[in-house]
């Protein structure tokens, strides 16, 4: 419910998308879980974070474009 009301605010989605991309970039450098998880799991989590970040950023672009076309703005 909380996330649904914030979907209309595209800045929140952009922040979440950029955070996922940043976490995916620093994941293998600062968190060394390869010994316990294995390299395949680390790559899978990193790929998931990249996909989630890119997807949220594309959703942000679509929502921003739709809001500008309709003339209403949510802030």
Keywords:
mainly alpha, 75 residues
Overall description:
The protein is mainly alpha-helical and 75 residues long. The chain is 83% helix and 0% strand. The protein is built from 4 helices and no strands. The protein has helices at 2-6, 10-30, 34-37, 39-70. Helix 2 (10-30) runs antiparallel to helix 4 (39-70). The longest helix is centred in the C-terminal third of the chain and has 32 residues, at 39-70. The chain is elongated. The two termini are 18 Å apart. The model has no long low-confidence stretch (mean pLDDT 80).
Proportion of residues in β-strands: under 5%
N-to-C SSE series?
Answer: HHHH
Number of E strands: 0
Straight-line N-to-C gap: 18 Å
Which geometry do the CA atoms define? elongated
Summarize the amount of helix as a percent range: over 70%
Q: Please work out how many helical segments DSSP would assign.
A: 4
Radius of gyration: 16 Å
Structural class: mainly alpha
Largest beta-sheet details: none
> What is the overall pLDDT average?
80
Residue ranges: pLDDT <50 for 5 or more in a row? none
């Amino acid at each position: 419910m909380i996330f649904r009301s914030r979907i209309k605010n595209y800045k929140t989605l952009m922040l979440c998308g950029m955070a996922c991309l940043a976490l995916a970039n620093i994941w293998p450098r600062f968190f060394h879980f390869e010994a316990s998880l294995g390299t395949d799991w680390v790559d899978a989590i990193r790929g998931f974070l990249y996909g989630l970040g890119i997807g949220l950023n594309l959703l942000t672009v679509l929502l921003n474009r739709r809001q500008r076309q309709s003339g209403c703005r949510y802030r």
